[in-house]
Amino acid sequence: MFPACRYSLQARRCVGALKAVQAEHVAPQVCSTRSSSSTLSRITTHYSVYPRDKDPRWEGVEMERFADEADVVIVGGGPAGLSAAIRLKQLASQHEKELRVCVVEKASQIGAHTLSGACLEPTALSELIPDWKERGAPLNTPVTEDKFSILTEKYRIPVPILPGLPMNNHGNYLVRLGHFVRWLGEQAEELGVELYPGYAASEVLFHEDGSVKGIATNDVGIAKDGSPKDVFERGMELHAKVTLFGEGCHGHLAKQLYKQFNLRGNCEPQTYAIGLKELWVIDEKKWCPGRTEHSVGWPLNRNTYGGSFLYHLNEGEPLVALGFVVGLDYTNPYLSPFREFQRWKHHPSIMSTLEGGNRIAYGARALNEGGFQSIPKLTFPGGMLIGCSPGFMNVPKIKGTHTAMKSGMLAAESAFSKITDENLQSETAGLYIPEYEEAFKKSWIWKELYSVRNIRPSFHNYFGLYGGMVYTGIFYWILRGKEPWTLKHNGLDADQLKPAKDCTPIEYPKPDGKISFDLLSSVALSGTNHDVPVAQNLAIYDVFLLHLEIETQSFSCVYEYVPLETGDGMRLQINAQNCVHCKTCDIKDPSQNINWVVPEGSGGPAYNGM
């Protein structure tokens, strides 16, 4: 993520200039010029870095927000949030209760920010909506064939998938998860759930007693220099008896809540991966609807965790979804997950499927990989964490949708009991619902994650991938996770990079434009757009550190060095309009100097069934 790049000399020059500026007591700003002007432009304008109460441009601006109230507010219109909303309204209908449920979603449409493989295990769906087939759920491709392989540079070594192993997908469905989430949204609306796509929850609100009061949506009408436009409007406050946070992996509000309530005090740090995905229309003769193919090995070395998938979808055309996942605990700063993905597609067993095809979509997102050891405290006064926000992904299965949905359902059931209890006497203004955590520990999610808890950390050994596979074969397949020990992760992903001088540079082949592609053309296929073309969704605390650390080839061309207008150096430029919201810069940054925050509502990628 942060290699020592070819611009290191220019970066050092720019850092030198920045230090000179700092010595003159000027606010931290990027080394840049505009024509003959000596004005320095800020590379980030977020109010968490430049407070508005100290900015004279904000004097006299009306900052009061309109407030509305609901029984339950849900942040995030993904599988967890929508499942919680549906379950709440189901219970309200069964018990003839009036219950107002509001869901805020930062994407312009429900499902537009959703990206996953995806091979869906329908367990939770069948519990939530037993007649999902009759209701037209877009689960069009039952798995008919499983393949698993170890790849070398030129060969594919088949590995049998024994019954009971996590990669056995019998009974599962290959889906375009964005379409499935959109369908869940339709089911929620039919039940009376209020959906608000295009509204990004940017702030947690608190009662005077410290309990969560609700959320505030993002302000709109802010200029690229951080000043208010004439059309500036304050965000809206949504208050609730209880607020459910289902923002997805590494949620911006969840990060605040972890600190506010010390929710991670008794668990290991979360560990992550980056998943990159493409959709292709291929030659119909090569299309095998229902086939799943997974691989490990090349192009990654044995000590870099990762793997790939290739799914043949039955969506009315010869469509395949393929992707590459790299654990963000990698140690070589020269490694580029995007380029590894592009290189992987040139393996003979993959290229033979793609040749003659047409790539139609690209995207990327972070994944939780900490599993059982990294589950935080889920409840706090006024709120609960659900879905991929706390991290319930079953890493060996490469599945988290079913556990996310179930967590939302459990939270809904616990909340409904408390909200409708006429004799309830709450100690805090925001309801504290510990029953959710108790129900979670009694559920099949807890048992499932516990049984596979040691598989991911077992890869931290001298033999890496191969040692982990041997461990899985012996202790999971035979003992089903009942070994009397729990392995630990290696700590924060941000702490894992080695110095560049101790690592071997990686020479990546140039993309051929047929099988492999460059980053800019890939981002163009994600539909990514932000109204404000500046880093208002990337709060950089210390620009000096950023120059020392940043990568010129990120997953979406966000960070790069460009020539100064005077021609005598380079300056750092943040192309925030290219941010696909993968959040990897926030996670992997060695100094934790970057804070990803939500942009104006509806900004970001516009995925269509990713």
Automatic annotation (TrEMBL):
The keyword Oxidoreductase applies. Its EC number is 1.5.5.1. GO terms for molecular function: 4 iron, 4 sulfur cluster binding; electron-transferring-flavoprotein dehydrogenase activity; metal ion binding. Binds 1 [4Fe-4S] cluster. It comes from the Eukaryota. It is an enzyme of class 1 (oxidoreductase). Pfam families: ETFQO_UQ-bd, Fer4_ETF_QO, Pyr_redox_2. Its cofactor is FAD; [4Fe-4S] cluster. GO terms for cellular component: mitochondrial inner membrane. Gene3D superfamilies: 3.30.70.20, 3.30.9.90, FAD/NAD(P)-binding domain (3.50.50.60). The chain crosses the membrane at residues 459-479. Residues 570-599 form the 4Fe-4S ferredoxin-type domain. Keywords: Electron transport, FAD, Flavoprotein, Iron, Iron-sulfur, Membrane, Metal-binding, Oxidoreductase, Transmembrane, Transmembrane helix, Transport, Ubiquinone. It catalyses: a ubiquinone + reduced [electron-transfer flavoprotein] = a ubiquinol + oxidized [electron-transfer flavoprotein] + H(+). Accepts electrons from ETF and reduces ubiquinone. This is Electron transfer flavoprotein-ubiquinone oxidoreductase. The lineage of its organism: Eukaryota, Metazoa, Chordata, Craniata, Vertebrata. The gene is LOC109049324.
